[in-house]
Amino acid sequence: MHTDSDSISFTSTGFKTACNILSLWECSSEQAQRILKLSKTSYHKFNAAPETVKLNNEQLERISCLLNIHHALRCMFSNPENVRKFMKMKNHNDFFAGRSPLEVIEHGEFLELNEVAKRIDALQNNL
Fold it and tell me: Domain spans of the chain?
């Protein structure tokens, strides 16, 4: 049985992990706020006190997408530098149209974030 403190701990850990991933990808705080769909105030409050994080279902889904992207990148690449830089690399397939995955997700649209996660996962599964 999960308690409220388990839920808070899970949410806090997910938020911190997502922020670490976004930092690894060299996202600005503004990009991170848009990707996570958080106001500037909430983003900075949660960074200062992660135990206070309260997220809605969409925000939790966004964190899940980020974790899945990072996991797929770690499975694809043995070199940590590739894991870190992939999200900023230009991609010329039809979906990305010369944009990097980060350029696609930084606008904060959930459908684009989810699609990028699916495409990176498919790429990883085809290796």
Answer: 4-125
